[in-house]
Write a structure and sequence with these properties.
The protein has about 775 residues and is of the alpha/beta class. The protein has a domain of about 350 residues: TIM Barrel (Alpha-Beta Barrel). Helices cover about 40% and strands about 10% of the residues. It is built from 27 helices and 21 strands. It has a 7-stranded parallel beta sheet with strand order 1-5-7-8-9-10-11. It has a 5-stranded parallel beta sheet with strand order 16-18-19-20-21. β2 and β3 form a beta hairpin. α11 packs across α13.
Length: about 775
């Protein structure tokens, strides 16, 4: 038996805590229930528990600085002092409240010195940084904001502090930094002529300073994440990488850097990555298994390869025998000193521990692996590679048996569903008439004013709502009592919408736990967890459904609630659905069929629901596709195939209705310029989008391509507790009318209001209605 130990890493782990401890700590701090010392103490405890868990499960290369109170990109902005002037920071340690103002904005109940000289006057607080999706995941990051002549300085020693913290507990960790080139490429400037990469010479000395401090404290390896290496890069970006890592090698010749790539293959960036003066390179073999041969063929002999063989983005148990078939020849070729194994990416994107799930179907549970189980799989692979398969023979056999059972299970495969999907025709994915004809019919029937007001769908999920849902789930509240409570909440929300003058109403979605989970729970082919939480942003966590089998709709899902809501008002009530692409992209998806095939099955189920809503009398049906863009492949050359089936899936579910039925959709936090043709091809009658944080910049795509359908540009940011003034929203709407015709514009928030409080929502929507009325008056006066 060999005596060597093969290094096993995680690249990063979930920071939220098995029982969502971070969420409750953050919300306690924001509400004033705990102070900063208590928040930081709880963070220390979470980090200690994360390190201990990894050590106990056999991880040998334990990361540090993978923890964040909100977001790792925001942490990097704070580390390098990239704090916009509006936040009032003038140097020195960055206060927690400044950090959270960048993340969430601030209400500014008192005159705010950070606002001096800006359009956000005293008492109005400051807006948050722009937020968008982290590559093609459902994690959101805070977009760095740069200015011409941007100065960088080491404003936070968080990576060093957490390395020391781990060291004091007996853990020798590998600190994690977001690489300088990826960091700059993730940022933006309000000056369109400023290329963030031009700031690299100013940024690199701060990275060098931090790396020197880490090396002085005993760090021998540092993991530097450069996920930009899986994107389409031009020569300027490749040269920026050469400059950055050349400087690191010159300044710190003894410090070993693990250059980490993930979410795809290196492709035409492989030679660039292999040419950088680093000690190690991590590659994602879950998303891009085909790149292994090229990497092995070209990698220098002295380079340590970290192979991401366990999927860090999905929750399926690995077939360890198959993985060992791939890894054993690599070990023989490279040697133990030049090989590490790891997940494909940080385990941030999967739940923490399957052991917390006690109600899952036993067969399904046997097919799954969460973060803790993935660490165990990695350690098992490490032991098998170090000592031969015999030392873990039982574990390997169990994984093979589980894979075989899943492949043949009748719980996974439904012939009727497969037959229906195969019978889909192109005609089923087309509306009967073009938009212009539909628009005229809808306008005549609906009789809405110009700049019609509405919301995206959900209203605040108050403590009372959550308590009632929990009591019902635990059996402490009968189905009848719970239904009566939900009807009461719904009726009250409808009355309030009428009182403030909204034109198109929603029922508030009090009966829904999550916009994807609610539907998945009523569809065949999905399963759900009790504790399978994954961070979306900040303290916002979701429990993604597990799409494990063929999908169908046993019965209507929303019709009864729509009927009740419409009975409470004479105003139009939108039917509210989540679209097939979003359900797919926000679920853990089966990996035994193509994503397009799974999406078509979901589309057919949603199509049934759309048609039943129309039969019930719904004149407006909103089918949210918040996640359509995030499903784009990271390489532009692969976009066409995805957009073809994604758009077809939306049209398939939306096209079986009459001309007079108005189809809405909602998309959030997306750059639309490069997919505007696909959005137009969706042919929704009304699309609502996020535009408040970008101050209507996102509308430029719709202007340049002369988008013909109606648009609701979000006029305030629901991810911040700020209540924007009437003048602020009116100004945004005026900007919108500079880009769009007044007849195209709807007025709405930029997303659902579920995560906000009523104290925030009420004044914000009152102001929004007032802003719409101001616009109507302005355009009426101009027409006279």
């Amino acid at each position: 038996m060999s005596s060597f130990s093969l290094p096993v890493s995680t690249l990063g782990t979930p920071r939220i805590g098995p029982r969502r401890e971070l969420k409750f700590a953050l919300e306690g701090y924001w509400s004033g229930q705990i102070d900063a010392d208590e928040l930081l103490a709880r963070a220390v405890a979470l980090r200690a528990a994360n390190w201990a868990r990894q050590k106990a499960l056999g991880i040998t290369m334990i990361p540090s600085n993978d923890f964040s109170l909100y977001d790792q990109v925001l942490d990097t902005s704070v580390m390098v002092g990239a704090i916009p002037e509006i936040y009032g920071w003038s140097g020195g340690p960055v206060p927690l409240d400044t950090y959270f103002a960048m993340a969430r904005g601030s209400q500014g109940h008192e005159p705010d010195p950070a606002c001096a000289g800006h359009h956000h006057g005293p008492g109005q607080g400051v807006p948050a940084l722009e937020m968008t999706k982290w590559f093609d995941t459902n994690y959101h990051y805070m977009v760095p904001e740069f200015t011409r002549g941007q100065r960088f300085m080491l404003a936070s020693t968080k990576p060093l502090d957490e390395f020391r913290e781990a060291k004091a507990l007996g853990y020798h960790t590998r600190p994690v930094l977001l690489g300088p080139v990826s960091y700059l490429k993730l940022g933006k400037s309000k000056d369109p002529s400023l290329d963030p990469l031009s700031l690299l010479p100013a940024l690199l000395p701060v990275y060098v300073e931090m790396l020197r401090k880490l090396a002085a404290q005993g760090a021998d390896w540092v993991q530097i994440d450069e996920p930009c290496l899986v994107l389409d890069l031009d020569e300027q970006a490749r040269q920026a990488l050469r400059v950055a890592y050349g400087m690191f090698a010159y300044a710190l010749p003894k410090l070993k850097l693990m250059l980490t790539t993930y979410f795809g293959g290196l492709g035409d960036n492989l030679d660039t990555a292999l040419g950088l003066p680093v000690a190690g390179l991590h590659v994602d073999l879950a998303r891009a298994p085909e790149q292994l041969d090229a990497v092995l063929a070209k990698a220098p002999n002295g380079l340590v390869l970290s192979l991401g063989v366990i999927d860090g983005r999905n929750i399926w148990r690995a077939n360890l025998a198959k993985l060992l078939d791939r890894l054993e020849p690599v070990l023989a070729r490279r040697g133990a000193d030049h090989l590490q194994i790891a997940p494909s990416c940080s385990l941030l994107h999967v739940p923490i521990d399957l052991a917390l799930e006690t109600d899952l179907d036993p067969d399904l549970s046997n097919w799954l692996a969460f973060a803790a189980q993935k660490m165990d799989e990695l350690a098992t692979l490490g032991r098998a590679l170090a000592g031969g398969r015999g030392v873990v023979a039982e574990r390997i056999a169990e994984s093979v048996l589980a894979a075989s059972a899943r492949a043949t299970s009748p719980k996974v495969h439904d012939r009727a569903v497969a037959s229906r999907a195969a019978a889909v025709t192109g005609e089923m994915a087309r509306r009967a008439s073009p938009f212009g004809d539909r628009h005229a019919v809808q306008r005549a029937i609906l009789g809405l004013p110009s700049f019609p007001t509405t919301t995206i769908g959900s209203f605040p999920q108050t403590g009372a709502v959550r308590q009632a849902r929990a009591a019902h789930a635990k059996g402490g509240l009968t189905a009848e009592a719970y239904d009566a409570f939900l009807r009461q909440e719904t009726a009250a929300a409808i009355r309030w919408q009428e009182e403030i003058g909204l034109d198109v109403l929603v029922h508030g979605e009090f009966e829904r736990n999550d916009m994807v989970q609610y539907f998945g729970e009523q569809l065949a082919g999905f399963a759900f967890t009790k504790s399978g939480w994954v961070q979306s942003y900040g303290s916002r966590y979701v429990r993604p459904p597990i799409l494990f089998g063929d999908v169908s709709r046993p019965k209507p899902m929303t019709v009864d609630w729509w009927r009740y809501a419409q009975s409470c008002t004479a105003k139009p009530m939108k039917g509210m659905l989540t679209g097939p692409v979003t359900i797919l992209n926000w679920s853990f998806v089966r990996d035994d069929v193509s994503r397009s095939a799974a999406c078509r099955q979901i589309a057919l189920a949603i199509r049934d629901e759309v048609q039943d809503l129309e039969k019930a009398g719904a004149r407006m049906i909103q089918i949210d596709e918040a996640a359509l863009r995030e499903g784009l492949p990271l390489r532009r050359g692969e976009w066409g195939h995805y957009l073809d089936w994604a758009v077809e899936s939306f049209r398939l579910c939306a096209s079986g209705v009459r001309d007079e039925t108005q189809i809405h959709t909602h998309m959030c936090y997306s750059e639309f310029n490069d997919i505007i043709d696909a959005i137009a091809a969706m042919d929704a009658d009304v699309i609502s989008i996020e535009t408040s944080r970008s101050r209507m910049e996102l509308l430029d795509a719709f202007v340049s391509d002369r988008y013909p359908n109606d648009i609701g540009p979000g006029v305030y940011d629901i991810h911040s507790p700020r209540v924007p003034a009437v003048a602020e929203m009116t100004a945004l709407l005026e900007k919108a009318t500079e880009r769009l015709s007044a007849g195209q514009v709807w007025v709405n928030p930029d997303c659902g209001l579920k995560t906000r409080t009523w104290d925030e929502v009420r004044p914000a929507l009152v102001n929004m209605v007032a802003a719409a009325r101001q616009l109507r008056a302005m355009f009426a006066e101009a027409a006279e």
